[in-house]
Amino acid sequence: MEEDRQSVPVDFEAPTFWENSDFWQLVHVNQIRGPIGDLRILYANILAHLDPGSGHLEHIVLDHTPRCDDGSLAADGPIMTWWQALDAIMKQVQPPHAHRYDSLSSRRELLDSLGFVDIDGQYVRLPINSDNTAVPPWPLNEWERRLGRYYGDTLADANCDALDALSAAAFTRYGTDLPEPWEKFKWAVRDEMMKQEVHVYHLL
Q: Which helix (H) or strand (E) holds 202?
């Protein structure tokens, strides 16, 4: 019989959270860049509660900035128009230093300054789509093509649920200068994401 599981809201920036914390072998941090008031304080608290000599921190960040290396993504198309509008809102409402440690090098320097050792970091490309029929195929790497199929199906789902989850609250609460209301414009974003000739990816 499975145990009942409940999601309990946690404020990991509250001092009381760390006062009652044990030591851990592994701390996994995933997708909390925006809400963090001060990443340095969070990392310092984690380090203080890792098992000395054997504890590990794993931090995963998905950067939704659309990237394209071959010019197939239009600078004024739906994807870039959507992202620029959303990114402008995020920078408006997030703490001023929320993006200070976005790069691997800056995050490595921060971790090193706090006393972390054996620091490793890497980028993984997440294509938004893939095309096995093109010559050459997109992406060239077979593993990335598989990622593109799965990630594209999630991000550009039939009902635009993923795009709504990323965007609807921000556009509803803070307004937007999109050329059309979000409920209509999201379909143009989804359509461009599904075009196999548009070679765009995110970074994990």
A: strand 201-203
**Complete DSSP assignment for 94-138:** S-TTTTTT-SHHHHHHHHHHHT--S------EEES--BSSSSS-B
At a CB cut-off of 8 Å and minimum separation 6, what does 32 contact? none
- Which residue is associated with the tokens 């199906």? 153
User: What is the per-residue DSSP string for 19-65?
Assistant: HT---BSEEEEES-TTT-S-HHHHHHHHHHTBPTTT-EEEEE--EEE
Q: Which residues, other chains included, contact 94 with Cβ-Cβ below 8 Å and sequence gap of 6+? A: 34
How do residues 91-133 score in pLDDT, each as one tens digit?
888 766 666 667 888 889 999 999 999 999 989 999 999 998 8
pTM, entire model: 0.84
**Pairing relationship of beta strands 63-67 and 125-127 according to DSSP bridges:** unpaired
DSSP state of 159: T
What pLDDT does residue 1 have? Answer: 45
